[in-house]
């Protein structure tokens, strides 16, 4: 059985994330490579007619998806699904 984590708990423990955009291959962007090594990226998967959920780590093949960069490392739960995504807790640039 997969483990479930609450998005609010991640924000409380790892800080408010900001969305990132993959303008080029993730391996060619030093900031994304560093964040991936530090376990600070959450991939939010959008499935039609289902609620959004998150996967800890960078999964660029999951389409359509959003990537959130946290200021501090996330838990090392590889198979966990992050539920209860609240986009109001996401930091937007310049706010």
What does this structure look like?
The protein is an alpha+beta fold and 95 residues long. It has one domain. Helix content is 17%, strand content 24%. The protein has helices at 7-14, 30-37, and strands at residues 4-6, 18-20, 41-45, 53-56, 65-69, 81-83. The longest helix has 8 residues, at 7-14.
Comma- or semicolon-separated keywords:
alpha+beta, six-stranded mixed β-sheet, 95 residues
How are the secondary structure elements laid out?
Elements: E1 4-6, H1 7-14, E2 18-20, H2 30-37, E3 41-45, E4 53-56, E5 65-69, E6 81-83
Parallel strand pairs: 1-6
Antiparallel strand pairs: 2-5, 3-4, 3-5, 4-6
Short description:
With 95 residues, the chain is of the alpha+beta class.
> Ranges with pLDDT <50 over ≥5 residues?
none
Summarize model confidence as the mean pLDDT.
89
Shape: globular
Placed side by side, the strands forming the largest sheet appear as: 1-6-4-3-5-2
Strand percentage lies at: 15-25%
In helices, the fraction of residues equals 10-25%
Number of helices: 2
Order of helices and strands: EHEHEEEE
The number of distinct β-strands equals 6
Biggest sheet descriptor: 6 strands, mixed
Radius of gyration: 13 Å
Structural class: alpha+beta
